[in-house]
Design goal:
The protein contains six helices and eight strands, in the order βββαβααβαββαβα. The chain has about 220 residues and is of the alpha/beta class.
Amino acid sequence: MHPQTMELTAEDGHRFEIWRADPSGKVKGGIVLLHAVFGRTPHIGDVCAQWAQHGYAAIAPALFDRLARDTVHPYSREGVEAGTRCYGQLRAQDVLSDVAACATALRACGPVVMSGFCTGGSWAWRAAAEMQFDAQVNFYASHAHLADWIGFTPRCPTIMHFGDLDPIVPPAQVAHIAAAHPQVTIKVHPGALHAFMNPQQQSYHPAAAERALAQSLEFLDQVLR
């Protein structure tokens, strides 16, 4: 179930690389996974495989291919700064066009879920507001509480995950998101920092990661019936 490297073409003609992992058994649907500021790191490939194990065909686009192929940054302050600059160079139409191509590639699998981590979670948040998805599973969207982003309202059932020790989206800001979007299911994980899902980062919290995945799968079982 190791992800395969493939290419897709966006509506504007841009060709970009994806990782795709498909279930070996019954297919429940598809999921588009957007990477954090570090780019499409090996962690995202592992996440694709994980979702495939649970019945979802998973695609992770290399969004930074619009700038340069194979752009990946280290897990460091410098990596965060470099990745933030990369995301800052992408236009909304660029990201959403790549997301749309991924969603189209998954439609034959059934319901399509939008997902992402950190800044990728922010773009998943926007994509779920501007495009048609069947559900959203969002991990610590770093921009969703900001003035320019909180106004985006998901058009599909949505679950969001945050850590209660997240310095980027602290509990007060999570409460702000919850107040603005009472229809969104929000899970706050005790003792977890930002990026608690990633075993490659010091902020990894195994118990929170396991719980968040289980809650997400249960949520999808309910809303995608």
